[in-house]
Amino acid sequence: MLKIKLARFGKKHQAHYRIVVNEARDKRDGKYVALIGHYSPVVPKKLEIDVKVYEEWLKKGAKPTETVASLFKRFQSGNPFPVKKTGPSKKAKAKAETAKKEAEAPKVEAPAEVAEAVETVVEAPVEEVKIEETKVEEQTQA
Question: Over the stretch 2-17, which tens digit does the pLDDT of each residue have?
């Protein structure tokens, strides 16, 4: 059974893929029957697929992998790598939300009696406590 799949090439962390037609059980990077296109996920991203050849192989019975099918769908859309909208991060959104909640929350004031009790406790003198040191004799084993 023929598959349309990706064959990986390139250096470490600089992957480059060829979109190829290959036997399903053959090695990923081995010999292939036909070269259909190229895909580079590293910046600058590139996607090139020969649509006529791709459709011919589909008619012959070759089945694309999920990844190749999604890449082909992206390629047909005309803008395979749309620019993502940037916005505040999750952390920034959470901080803004908590600040908003704190601003809206009603402030509760303590009764005057409690405030006076706290002041008297703070002003009370602290008694000095003397701690006597105790020596622990070391026991030696004979």
Answer: 999 999 999 999 999 9
Kindly report the pTM of this predicted structure. 0.59
Of residues 57, 36, 56, the one with CA closest to residue 47? 36
pLDDT tens by residue, 93-108: 999 999 888 888 776 6
Q: Return the SS3 of 42.
A: coil
**Token pair for residue 142?**
């004979």
The C-alpha atoms of residue 82 and residue 2 are separated, in whole angstroms, by: 31
d(CA 48, CA 38): 5
For tokens 């999750």, the residue is 90
3-state secondary structure of 122: helix
What pLDDT shows up at residue 108? Answer: 64
Q: What are the contacts of 92-100 at 24+ separation with CB within 8 A?
A: none
- CATH architecture of the domain with residue range 2-77: 2-Layer Sandwich (3.30)
Q: Where are the domains of the chain?
A: 2-77
Tell me the pLDDT tens digit for each residue of 63-91. 999 999 999 999 998 888 888 888 888 99
